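USER:
I wish I could look at a protein chain and see how it folds. I am handing you a single protein, as its sequence and its fold in token form. As I understand it, each token names a local backbone shape. I hope you can help me see how the letters and the tokens relate. The protein I mean follows directly.
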Amino acid sequence: MTIVVGYVPKPEGRAALVAALEEADLRGESLHVLNTSKGDAYSDPGYASQDDLAEVKALLDESGVPYELEHRLGDQAGGAADILEAVERLGASLVVIGIRKRTPTGKLLFGSDAQTVLLHAPCQVLAVKAG
């Protein structure tokens, strides 16, 4: 089976990647690392640069865990929809996401991708805090 991890080039994304690698190694499963942008915005702060991807690829190669790295522009629905689509498409056994504290107003105005994944994923979800 496969573990899906939503990666963003931020501390919570790196924490999720490390936790996902540990889980994949422990379970003997492959890893699918997903990084997307909302809409067609290359300027989305969650969209990894080529330097970010080189770091991720080096960490993945060093781990010895079989992996696939998916880096693409998403749809307008955003990161949660892309993660849930990958989980369904791959029949994932686990999804790993990074989380951060947000104010109630921030969640109200912008929504929460983490909450959407937690509530709608058809498999187990591991939510990881940075630091």
